[in-house]
Design brief:
The protein is an all-alpha fold and 432 residues long. The chain is built from 18 helices and no strands. Helix 1 packs across helix 11.
Length: 432
């Protein structure tokens, strides 16, 4: 099979935007939705953290995605299923048992999204050279995070506007999810047309069931035979330890009343904070991180990136103690945090690519992201309980203390000095 050439700019931004949409809906928009519908912080953090589980266990079926059909096929099929799931959420929000029903549909979206992630990340690795991967990692990170900003920003602003015009929180959010479903089905149609067909993206549909199971098991086991696997796993689990807890409580903090320690912002104002300055600063941080890693190699910038993803968390301490009424102050604080996230998360994404290099790159990358999700799931589950125990002020102080493990694992992580640089040995060789 000959490789069908497509300009990566045609599909990388939209693919990772589509990859981010269901994740932000399941893990973050659901938090705001349930907060507006009256659930407690402890319940919100616990139940929405459980929704990480499909991303944690996706390595179990990642070899099947790697072996059966093509990665392109799985991408398109899962995007169609996710669009239908988003419409299902919209349908169930106004019902009496909205929590049970929406949670069930969120689980369906989560499993579909995890499968989509496996295929999309493997497709990225198989379609690009090592240097292209390093160059575009900032772009894909930026558009993935832009999808998250769309959810936390634009989508929430739309819901806030509809809350005011309809006078009903449930109807407003139902209409918002119908609009989101329509957007995702447009993305599905675009990718069905524009995704290339790399020569390496070939399924092995004739493999018998016994052989499929044996190869899947060997693929999974080969990941744990990698050199320095203990230090690699520590990095994957702890690099985002503080962020995992902050992510669950940032939006509830902005929405909560001042008597409870929050900022008492409106739904629309929360969306505005993430959708204006946050978008700009995230974009700058993500693109800058990818460019610097591609020019100088990841190791040179790794310490700067771990500092960038962790230290800006201190802005929430200032917000909690000052409780400013000035929305501009809140926007600037969110922008600082978003820039740090965009710059610092580049290191995490690029390191997962580094670890996944080799014969089973798709499955091994999925295993990496599974451990990443586990590192987000476990701290996130207790974050709501911790916040209610400590209060917002002391909770955000704890978040800054919780950044220490990130710095420790970075000091121990194994990494080739030249990885990602132009003209490095990896740049001349396909990683598949």
């Amino acid at each position: 099979m000959q490789t069908q050439q497509r300009n990566p700019w045609l599909w990388i931004p939209s693919l990772y935007y589509a990859q981010g949409i269901p994740f932000v809906v399941v893990m973050m928009v659901s938090v705001i939705l349930y907060k507006r519908l009256g659930l407690s912080n402890a319940d919100i953090a616990l139940y929405t953290s459980w929704l990480y589980l499909p991303w944690v266990i996706k390595p179990i079926w990642s070899p099947i995605v790697d072996i059966l059909k093509t990665r392109r096929y799985w991408i398109v099929a899962m995007q169609l299923l996710i669009g239908a799931g988003l419409a299902g959420v919209a349908l169930t929000i106004p019902g009496d048992n909205f929590f049970r029903h929406t949670l069930a549909v969120f689980w369906l979206i989560a499993f579909s999204s995890a499968t989509h992630d496996i295929a999309a990340d493997g497709f990225y690795i198989s379609a690009l050279s090592s240097h292209q991967q390093a160059w575009f990692v900032g772009i894909r990170s930026t558009f993935y995070r832009l999808a998250m900003i769309t959810g936390q920003g634009l989508l929430v602003m739309v819901a806030g506007y509809l809350e005011g015009t309809t006078g009903s929180v449930s109807i407003a959010w139902s209409m918002t999810f119908y609009l989101l479903a329509a957007l995702f089905l447009i993305l599905f149609a675009w990718h069905r047309f524009v995704l290339p067909r790399p020569a390496a993206d070939v399924g092995r549909q004739s493999l018998p069931l016994r052989g499929l199971f044996k190869e899947s098991l060997e693929t999974f086991a080969s990941f744990f035979r990698k050199e320095h696997i203990g230090r690699v796993l520590a990095f994957l689990l702890l690099y985002r330890f503080a962020e995992a807890q902050l992510a669950k409580l940032a939006a509830p903090f902005l929405l909560d009343v001042k008597a409870a320690g929050g900022l008492e912002l409106s739904t629309g104002a929360v969306g505005l904070a993430y959708g204006t300055v946050g978008v700009l600063m995230l974009t700058i941080g993500g693109v800058l991180g990818g460019m610097l890693a591609a020019r100088h190699g990841l190791r040179r910038w790794l310490w700067w990136m771990v500092a960038a993803i962790n230290l800006p968390n201190a802005v929430y301490i200032a917000l909690a103690y000052l409780q400013p009424g000035n929305l501009m102050f809140v926007n600037i604080a969110v922008g600082i945090e978003q820039f740090g996230y965009g710059f610092g998360f580049t290191a995490y994404m690029l390191y997962m690519i580094y670890v996944a290099r080799g014969l089973h790159s798709t499955a091994h990358y999925a295993i990496c992201t599974g451990f990443m999700s586990l590192g987000m799931m476990l701290p996130g589950m207790i974050s709501g309980w911790l916040q209610e125990l400590l209060g917002y002020q002391h909770f955000f102080v704890w978040i800054l203390i919780a950044t220490i493990p990130s710095f420790l694992v970075v000091s121990l992580v194994p990494l080739d000095r030249e990885f990602g640089k132009r003209d490095s040995p990896q740049s001349a060789t396909s990683v598949v």
